[in-house]
């Protein structure tokens, strides 16, 4: 999914303006309009400071799983045509390397960009497959290897398309003398187990105000295929409703506990309320194997809420998870 920062910002500002207007009309606001604006401004300023501090610091690029399941190697490379891993260490299970495919940097008085484009590489496990004691093991491993290579190619193509659009938009802004623009793209390994691996692509853009959004890529290391949300659940189970209702409960609990927390949950303008997730909703599995549902800024609440994640209790899903 491509994100147009300016259009997304305008869309969310319009939605938030309509919601505030509706609240005023129905007499539900307990604060004056000026007080509410001051609160939103303080929240936005705090979030901007946090975002800039986080993204101005270089992300740690080398992560090794504690159980030695996989090795991830980062190699700075300013060329988009070649990306090689520094080393390949044999480990149990599938081995995936993350290298820097492209490192795009620009800095001037008003414009800055720090865009590191990751690339997934699959270590060739053919030799290991050929050395299996059982004849049936080699074809099975070869099939998984082939699927894994295809999956990483598709993910790499998607990542490159996203980052190329970000770079193109940034370079177009260089012709504009007025205005500031900061763009940061980095990546992080969220979790890795013998069963799966997840990469998060983090994007941040600031032009007056900031907008942050993420992309998530989870691979089943046993099959070599990218995992979709529906793949985690048994057939004919209503996991959409189960997860959605739990998220609503968590949203309400957060708002009850913190007056600065705000979700589109009980708004008079019903069309803006969060109703349920879809199979396209972003997710990942954390290091405990628990399901994390993710929303970008403006998806389920004001942009001042930032990116939000909800951990779905394992107990809730135990009867419907595969």
Task: Quote the beta fraction.
Answer: 15-25%
Mean pLDDT across all residues, rounded? 78
What is the H/E order?
HHEEHHEEEEHEEEH
Helix content estimate: 25-40%
Task: State Rg.
Answer: 22 Å
Structural class: alpha+beta
State the helix count.
6
- Approximate shape: flat
Q: Indicate the multimeric state.
A: single chain
Count all strands and give the number.
9
Low-confidence stretches: 26-31, 49-94, 132-136
How far apart are the termini? 28 Å
Question: Care to describe what's here?
Answer:
- With 322 residues, the protein is α+β, with helices and mostly antiparallel strands.
- The chain contains 6 helices and 9 strands, in the order ααββααββββαβββα.
- The two termini are 28 Å apart.
Give a brief outline of the structure.
Mean pLDDT is 78; it is low at 26-31, 49-94 and 132-136. 34% of the residues lie in helices and 24% in strands. It contains 6 helices and 9 strands; from the N terminus they run H-H-E-E-H-H-E-E-E-E-H-E-E-E-H.
Question: Top keywords for this entry?
Answer:
single chain; 322 residues; alpha+beta; six-stranded mixed sheet; 9 strands; 34% helix
Reconstruct the topology from this structure.
Layout: H1 5-25, H2 33-56, E1 96-107, E2 111-122, H3 126-130, H4 137-173, E3 181-192, E4 196-207, E5 209-220, E6 225-226, H5 239-257, E7 282-285, E8 291-295, E9 308-312, H6 314-317
Parallel strand pairs: 2-3
Antiparallel strand pairs: 1-2, 3-4, 4-5, 5-6, 7-8, 8-9
């Amino acid at each position: 999914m491509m994100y147009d920062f300016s259009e997304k910002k305008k869309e969310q500002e319009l939605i938030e303006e309509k919601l505030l207007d509706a609240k005023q009309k129905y007499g539900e606001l307990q604060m004056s309009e000026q007080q509410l604006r001051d609160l939103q401004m303080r929240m936005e300023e705090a979030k901007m400071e946090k975002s800039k501090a986080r993204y101005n610091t270089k992300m740690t690029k080398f992560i090794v799983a504690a159980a030695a399941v996989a090795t991830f190697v980062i190699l700075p490379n300013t060329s988009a045509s070649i990306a090689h891993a520094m080393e390949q260490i044999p480990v149990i299970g599938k081995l995936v390397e993350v290298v820097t495919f492209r490192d795009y940097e620009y800095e001037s008085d008003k414009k800055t960009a720090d865009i590191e484009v990751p690339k997934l590489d699959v270590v060739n496990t053919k030799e290991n497959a050929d050395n299996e004691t059982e004849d049936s093991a080699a074809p099975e491993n070869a099939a998984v290897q082939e699927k894994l290579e295809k999956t990483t190619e598709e993910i790499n193509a998607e990542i490159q398309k996203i980052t190329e659009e970000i770079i193109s938009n940034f370079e177009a802004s260089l012709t504009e003398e007025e205005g500031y623009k900061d763009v940061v793209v980095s990546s992080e390994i969220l979790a890795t187990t013998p069963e799966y691996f997840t990469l998060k692509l983090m994007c941040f853009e600031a032009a007056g105000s900031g907008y942050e959004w993420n992309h998530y890529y989870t691979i089943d290391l046993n099959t070599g295929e990218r995992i979709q949300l529906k793949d985690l659940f048994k057939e004919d189970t209503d996991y959409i409703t189960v997860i959605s209702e739990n998220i609503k409960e968590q949203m309400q609990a957060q708002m009850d506990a913190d007056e600065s927390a705000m979700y589109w949950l009980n708004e008079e303008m019903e069309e803006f309320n969060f109703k349920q997730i879809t199979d396209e909703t972003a997710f990942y599995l954390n290091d405990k194997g628990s399901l994390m549902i993710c929303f970008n800024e403006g998806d389920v609440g004001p942009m001042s809420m930032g990116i939000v994640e909800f951990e779905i209790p394992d107990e809730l899903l135990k009867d419907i998870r595969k």
